[in-house]
Amino acid sequence: LSAAIYYPITAGIAALSVAATWQLYSGADVSQFMLGYDVWWKELWHCLTTTLFHANIFHLIFNLYWLWAFGTKVESEFGHPAMIGIFVLLGVGSSAAEYALLIGGIGLSGVVYGLFGLLWILGRSERRFSEAIDRSTVHLFIVWFFFCILTTVAGVWQIANIAHGMGFVLGALLGWTLAERGRARRARNAALLAAVFLLCAVGGTAARPYINLTSDAGRHLAYQGYLALEEEDNEKAATLYERAVAINPNMPDWWNNLGVAYVRLGRIDDAQSAFQRKAELEPKPPPNR
Q1: Is the pLDDT of residue 38 over 60?
Q2: Do 14 and 112 sit in the same domain of this protein?
Q3: Pick from 211, 240, 269: which residue ends a domain?
């Protein structure tokens, strides 16, 4: 614990993770810190706070062990402000990538894989990082990566494998940028890193309804449609709800709101069809006896 004063950012992230996971398991309402279609547009910091929560004690201990092993080395070499920036880069990028395609995840695994990628690349090019990661650690992280994919496919665990992979990619690109000595090549690498990060951010926000592989994309579209109705942007609302019901046609509230948008646009026949579909989907009351 005495070493924590030398690595306040790494120690702080670890402490916040313990506190957040405790809150999760104590039954506290932590939804305001998780990723969700209803808050994503206004509260982008959720992609960082979601990394602090962990599914179980093994998940927490594994991530904290490697966060400390890698994070202290990074923080000692690059300083405290840089460690904050690296945490933001890896946390936001890996969380956004996972959320873009699936439903999002929790935990520091994306950050840990990013730190691993960063140190692995630097260790191959700079002597001061040559012993940061040994061969057995490289083998462990590679095996663990594919093991997690297999257990997810088999339905044993649900793991944020996209976050693992994108965290590694971002960390490796950062290491590649820092290791480059030529100014032009370093600028090129930095531009590539920025482009990948931006792609993750756009994928997890504006592009998510169009690339997401789950039914959650429909909820995202429906929420945007609701906001458009509130703002009386009826054309936009109708378009969004049309896309939402195309993804999941079994939500009566979505059909109702689509009908409202149609009424406001004067599309009465379409509105009647939407309201009829809503009525068909609503649960029927039991018959009187």
Answers
A1: no
A2: yes
A3: 211
Q: Tell me: pLDDT of 24 over 90.
A: yes
Predicted model pTM: 0.83
Residue 162 has pLDDT above 80, yes or no: yes
Distance of alpha carbon 161 from the chain centroid:
11
pLDDT, position 41: 53
Contact indicator for 111, 171 with CB cutoff of 8 Å? no
Compute the Cα dihedral for 103, 71, 63, 134 and give only its sign. positive
Distance CA 14, CA 94 (A): 18
Burial class (CB in 10 A: 0-12, 13-18, 19+), 263: middle
End position of a domain, from candidates 191, 211, 231 = 211
Helices (H) and strands (E) in the chain, counts: 13, 0
What DSSP string describes 81-103? HHHHHHHHHHHHHHHHHHHHHSS
Average pLDDT for 42-63: 90
CA distance 86 to 51: 14
How far apart CA 235 and CA 225 sit, in angstroms, is 10
- What phi and psi values does residue 204 have, to the nearest 5 degrees? -85, -5
Contact in structure between 234 and 222 (CB atoms under 8 Å): no
Residue 113 is assigned to a structural domain of this protein:
yes
How many domains does the structure of the chain reveal?
Answer: 2
Structural domain boundaries enclosing 256: 216-281
